[in-house]
Design goal:
The protein is mainly α and 116 residues long. It has 5 helices and no strands.
Amino acid sequence: MAVLAELTMAVHFAVLAYIVLGAFLAWRWPRSIFVHLPFALWGLGIATLGFGCPLTLLEDALRDRETGPGFIERYLDGVLYPDGYLALTRVLAAALVVTGYTGTVLRWHRGRQHVG
């Protein structure tokens, strides 16, 4: 079970990176935005509405521990950035997502202007 828990944690890191940076992939591959959108909404729901994350629940179950702090609080807060900066990092992550979507819309708009 420990190997599956570690794999789940690694997938969780990849999903988190995709949530924050995935919209930028649509600058190159525009249709990928439709794959990213559910992930972005999922991340938004977790960050703002307190939805539970299924990957956190799965990892906790595989590690046979009670559900406690979330993934970000457990692995990133105090490691990737100083304690107490969770709100700021969420704002910065949201800004990256908005920038990615804004760039995607602008690129689509420019592409449509050149077609017609």
